[in-house]
């Protein structure tokens, strides 16, 4: 059963679970009222994006910043992995050379 009333919240009543989530968020002590408006704004943008097929040019700024941050994070993690791998290989190479040098020194004595 869906009711078709639109409130001042900006989210249609046809999505009852969204209204329930909105109510829960607004009832959180201390931070609820502060995060209610950004949540409603986010949900409105997502609905508009969904209805326009994801091709909304005006509100793409915040998503692109978030995606760029995530992309930079992933590239950083990959670079860290590569540097860690090279460091590990260099340590193993050094260890093998030091042990080989010690063995040669013992054989020559």
Relevant terms:
single chain; about 110 residues; mainly alpha; 3 helices; disordered N terminus
What would you say about this model in short?
With 109 residues, the chain is mainly α. The chain has helices spanning 16-26, 32-51, 60-108.
Per-chain topology:
Blueprint: H1 16-26, H2 32-51, H3 60-108
Helix pairs in contact: 1-2
How does the major sheet shape up?
Answer: none
Any low-confidence stretches, pLDDT <50, length ≥5? 1-11
Mean pLDDT: 79
> Looking at the chains present, what oligomeric state does this protein adopt?
single chain
Number of strands: 0
Put simply, the count of helices is: 3
Coarse morphology: elongated
Roughly what percent helix? over 70%
* Approximate strand percentage: under 5%
SS-based class: mainly alpha
Distance, first to last CA:
92 Å
The gyration radius over C-alpha positions equals: 29 Å
Give the helices and strands as they follow along the chain.
HHH
Characterization of this structure:
The model is unreliable at 1-11 (pLDDT under 50). It contains 3 helices and no strands. By secondary structure, the chain is mainly alpha-helical. The longest helix has 49 residues, at 60-108.
């Amino acid at each position: 059963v869906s009711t078709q009333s639109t409130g001042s919240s900006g989210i249609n009543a046809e999505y009852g679970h969204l209204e329930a989530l909105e109510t829960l968020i607004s009832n959180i002590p201390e931070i609820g009222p502060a995060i209610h408006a950004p949540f409603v704004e986010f949900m409105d943008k997502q609905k508009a994006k969904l209805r326009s097929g994801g091709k909304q040019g005006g509100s793409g700024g915040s998503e692109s910043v978030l995606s760029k941050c995530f992309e930079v994070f992933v590239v950083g993690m990959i670079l860290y992995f590569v540097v860690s791998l090279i460091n590990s290989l260099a340590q193993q190479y050094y260890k093998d050379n030091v042990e080989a040098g010690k063995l040669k020194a013992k054989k020559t004595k």
